[in-house]
Amino acid sequence: MDVKRCLDTYALMEISQENPDFEVYLDSDFVITEITLVEFYGVILRNYNEQTADYWFRKLEGYAVSVNREILKEAVKFKHENKKTNISFFDAAGYIFSIKNGCYFVTGDKEFKDFKNVEFIQK
C-alpha cells in the first residue's frame, strides 16, 4: 500500500469542523477504514442530522478500505491488552490496520500519543 496515513474518527471530526491542523490531510494521500467511516457517520448523525451525515459519507466513501477478519481479531486483542485506556474498537481496528499496512495512524486521541506509527495532532 502506498498510502501514508489512515485517519481516525477524531481526525475526521476535526476536518468536518474545519480545523486547519487537520484539514491539510484532505490534500494528502490517506485512507479510512470502512468501520471508521460508519462510526463517523453515526457521530455526525447524532450531532447534526441525516443530511449532513449523508454528505460526509458520500464525500469520504471513496477513501474507505475494507478491514479483514484477521485485523479485526488483532484489534480485539489490542483493545484487551490496553483495557486500562479508553481506546474504542473502531480506533483499535484503524490502528492495527495502519500498522499492518505501513501507514501512520492520524489522531488527536490522547490514548495513542505514545504509540508507534501514530501521527498525533493535539487540538
Descriptive key words:
123 residues, alpha/beta, Rossmann fold, 5-stranded parallel beta sheet, 6 helices, 50% helix, globular
What do you see in this structure?
There is one protein chain. This protein has 123 residues and is α/β, with parallel strands linked by helices. It has a single domain, classed as Rossmann fold, CATH 3.40.50.1010. Helix content is 50%, strand content 13%. The protein has 6 helices and 5 strands. The chain has helices at residues 9-16, 20-23, 34-47, 50-60, 69-81, 89-100; strands at 5-7, 30-33, 64-65, 104-107, 118-120. The protein has a 5-stranded parallel sheet with strand order 3-2-1-4-5. The termini are far apart. The mean pLDDT is 95.
